[in-house]
Design goal:
binds 3-acetylpyridine adenine dinucleotide; 560 residues; FAD/NAD(P)-binding domain; 5-stranded parallel β-sheet; 17% strand; globular; 15 helices
Length: 560
């Protein structure tokens, strides 16, 4: 297969204003926005087509857990209104179609080099450019490097003993093959019960002859109540995309959800239960934003956690299985809430067995199945849904080096350090979309990506209008952001519980909560304040000649 989409081959040149790595929802918008600003842009994508995680996570049952109407681009009214969602929570194939639709409409594909891995990015301090190399042997230079590679995009590899001897088929949920995988009539194991495992198991249970769900930590899951898309709502949004976008940026998660209803103590016990029932019936993330103090007060959190445990007890007929499925090791909302479409019900099916990995640890994969404790489970197919090397995995892949030969993760040994989640001190002109210390996994990824790209594009325009060629956070600016983010995370129950969102320093037990926890709305306000204060916390410079004069032309205004 060619590495070039039609139109690229003729136009490929070695230097660009911006290289955007990754062609998921962030990368697609980035290529569009930078190009619209009159910049020369090259997108580089490892996959043969756009989509990013929505290309790779093609496992059965994969579906968005933010309502479809909110999970799309709002910057172009026609782009919004000309698309029709079929489901309230779109499934992966539909999202991939949507992203292709957007990429085609915006005509970004010709600016993207597909089937190409970035395997090195070296900052050149003399020219203020990155030298970007690829696995196809091509080298490019770019003034700005924008990593649209996602924060949950490098899956953890299964490293179980014996895996190479397995005679059946195995796949990772996050690297699902493009060729159909037979499920019907086969004995299947799903290992992992985070959002991916819960979705995969629910879908696989419908077809497999036997399904073994290997659970290490029971997670809270609430029903999506997925149904046909609300076309009236879509029409309403279509007629006022700017207003809806404003609402998203004024919301805590970049999602339109029922509002927080004050503290739990404002209500009687009976009212609390009534409200919980209403949120359960609404479905999805709404349960997390009910009481203002459920994320900080253990007793209030218990009310919500116990409510969900009660639901599990009602839904799962076998009391022993129900007990194992009830999360007890952490408060609700501390880890990502799973949003399901009948997950608990599958355990009432004859063909589904829950395997408690804590009671019976997986000791090895055998040629015919999985050995867990004293039990051997014969299977034909294993699905690994083991999570991701969150936040840093994809960045490390690109082998980005500053002038001292360091990668960002070399400076992040005690937890990621960034300014606004967008840049990290020591790495000029390198931008990360949905990076650590931005709302990232706590916000609608689409909204966050668009906001980040707009911030970066405006900053580049600001620089071009002044002949500036280098930007980097100051140590003080970055530290102030880290302190601000840490102070917001400090009272949260979630800081004390291990999962991919918390970086724990083993020597002193100190913890960094990696996403920005102040809410998408507060984050957007902070970004706007930084800009209004003349890009407070950033230091700019320019390539100068021996006489100290600027060498780059000053752009009068950016193109439209
Ligand atoms: O990954 P996870 P995920 N033996 O890290 C288990 C987003 N997402 O891919 O909890 C046995 O949550 C591990 O066990 P434990 C969303 O942001 C969104 O499911 O570590 N088990 C856990 O159960 C989500 O938060 C959607 O004890 C092992 C599981 O593997 C994020 O992606 C859909 C194990 C990993 O869970 C990650 O979700 C899907 C072992 N050796 C994902 N190692 C949407 O709907 C790990 N596990 C948009």
């Amino acid at each position: 297969m060619t590495n070039f989409q039609p139109g690229v081959e003729e136009s490929v040149k070695t230097h660009y204003d911006v290289i955007v790595v990754g062609a998921g929802m962030g990368g697609i918008y980035a290529v569009h926005r930078f190009r619209k600003d009159g910049l020369s842009v090259l997108g580089i994508e490892a996959a043969p087509e756009v989509g990013g995680v929505w290309y790779h996570n093609a496992y059965p049952g994969a579906r968005v857990d933010v309502e479809s109407y909110d999970y799309c681009y709002f910057f172009d009214q026609d782009l919004y209104s000309d698309w029709t969602w079929t489901e309230r929570y779109a499934a992966q194939p539909e999202i991939l179609r949507y992203l292709n639709y957007a990429a085609d409409r915006l005509q970004v594909k010709p600016s993207i080099l597909f089937n190409t891995w970035v395997n090195g990015s070296q900052w050149d301090p003399d020219t203020h450019r990155y030298v970007v190399t690829t696995d196809t042997g091509k080298t490019f230079t770019a003034r700005y490097l924008v990593m649209a590679t996602g924060n949950l995009s490098k899956p953890r590899k299964p490293d179980f003993a014996g895996i190479d001897e397995f005679k059946g088929e195995w796949h990772q949920s996050a690297h699902w093959p493009r060729t159909p995988v037979q499920i019907a009539g086969r004995r299947v194991a799903v290992i992992g019960t985070g959002s991916s495992g819960v979705q995969a198991a629910t879908a696989i249970a419908k077809e497999a002859s036997e399904l073994y769900v290997f659970q290490r930590t029971a997670n809270y899951s609430v029903p999506a109540h997925n149904r046909e898309a609300d076309q009236e709502r879509h029409r309403r949004y279509s007629s006022k995309t700017e207003t809806i976008w404003k609402e998203l940026t004024e919301s805590g998660g970049g999602i339109i959800l029922p509002p927080v209803l004050g503290k739990a103590g404002d209500y009687t016990e009976e009212q609390q239960q009534q409200l919980l029932e209403e949120r359960w019936a609404f479905g999805g993330q709404a349960l997390l934003g009910l009481f203002a103090d459920q994320g900080t007060d253990q007793a209030v959190n218990d009310i919500v956690s116990n409510f969900v445990r009660g639901k599990v007890r009602q839904m799962v007929k076998d009391p022993e299985t129900a007990e194992k499925l009830m999360p007890t090791s952490y408060p609700i909302g501390v880890r990502r809430l799973c949003i399901d479409t009948g997950f608990y019900d599958i355990f009432n099916q004859e063909n589904v067995t829950l395997v408690d990995v804590n009671a019976d640890p997986i000791t090895r994969i055998t040629p015919t199945g999985i050995q867990a404790g004293d039990n051997h489970y014969e299977v034909d197919l294993i699905v690994f849904a083991l999570g991701f090397e969150a936040f840093t995995g994809a960045l490390d892949n690109a082998n980005i080096r500053n002038e001292h030969g360091q990668q960002p993760s070399d400076l992040w040994k005690r937890g990621p350090r960034t300014y606004l989640g967008l840049m990290t001190a020591g790495f000029p002109n390198l931008f990360t979309l949905t990076g650590p210390l931005s709302p990232s996994v706590l916000a609608n990824m689409n909204a966050a990506n668009v906001q980040h790209v707009d911030f970066i594009a405006d900053m580049i325009s600001h620089m071009n209008e002044r002949g500036l060629t280098r930007v980097e956070p100051t140590e003080e600016g970055q530290q102030a952001w880290m302190d601000h983010a840490a102070s917001l995370a400090k009272p949260l129950l979630r800081l004390a519980h291990d999962n991919y969102m918390v970086h724990v320093n083993k020597d002193d037990g100190s913890r960094v909560f990696v996403p920005y926890s102040g809410g998408f709305n507060k984050y957007v306000d902070q970004c706007n304040e930084v800009v209004a204060a003349g890009y407070r916390g950033f230091a700019f410079d320019a390539v100068r000649d021996e006489a100290g004069e600027l060498t780059e032309p000053v752009a009068s205004a950016h193109a439209q």
